[in-house]
Design brief:
The chain is built from 4 helices and no strands. By secondary structure, it is an all-alpha fold. The longest helix is centred in the middle third of the chain and has 53 residues. 16% of the residues are buried.
């Protein structure tokens, strides 16, 4: 059985909690801002589909066409925003690596001037500690990009479903028109 030092749990929990608060302050609003149009569009489509289901209505071809066109353009613009966040994540990663290397080199140089020499692991730990903010910014952008990607993927699945429903409606209309014409109506 593993023994856990409960005094360390409190320290780690508080550190993690502060990181979560940092994300909620900076990351969550970014995701909300960059995905607002897509979220609103998906909510609108879901509402329409639920109304059709609730009132046992057939899908309206014009409404489905509008949904497919609107959702396609919204996905396009959200994907563009996703790309911006991915670029920010890459830039934040570079910033983190620069800060980490700068801190590592600085501590290594200071270690040479002092009587005490740091081990490689100690230097890594000290550099990690000094670059924590840059690492958090990188993780926030990376996490935001992941969330936006998941939303775009889900919207693409919804788009596929709506496109299939639109095709089925059109085929049904063609079939009824063919049947009417064949019957001489």
């Amino acid at each position: 059985m593993i023994k856990i030092d409960k005094s360390k749990l409190g320290v780690e929990y508080n550190k993690i909690k502060s990181y979560l608060e940092y994300y909620e302050e900076y990351g969550a609003p970014l995701v909300e801002e960059y995905s607002r149009d897509l979220d609103e569009k998906v909510n609108s489509i879901t509402s329409y589909l639920n109304q059709c289901r609730t009132y046992n209505l057939d899908f309206d071809v014009v409404s489905l066409q509008r949904i497919v066109i609107d959702l396609s353009s919204t996905i396009y613009y959200t994907s563009s925003r996703l790309e911006q966040v991915e670029i920010l994540a890459d830039m934040a990663k570079i910033s983190y690596k620069d800060r980490y290397n700068e801190a590592y080199t600085s501590k290594q140089g200071a270690s040479r001037q002092e009587e005490r020499r740091y081990t490689s692991d100690q230097l890594k730990a000290l550099a990690d500690q000094e670059a924590i903010e840059e690492e958090l910014v990188h993780f926030i952008y990376q996490h935001c990009a992941s969330i936006l990607q998941a939303k775009v993927d889900a919207a693409n699945e919804l788009l596929k479903s709506c496109s299939k429903s639109l095709s089925a409606c059109i085929e049904s209309m063609k079939s009824m028109s063919y049947t009417s014409n064949k019957a001489g109506i």
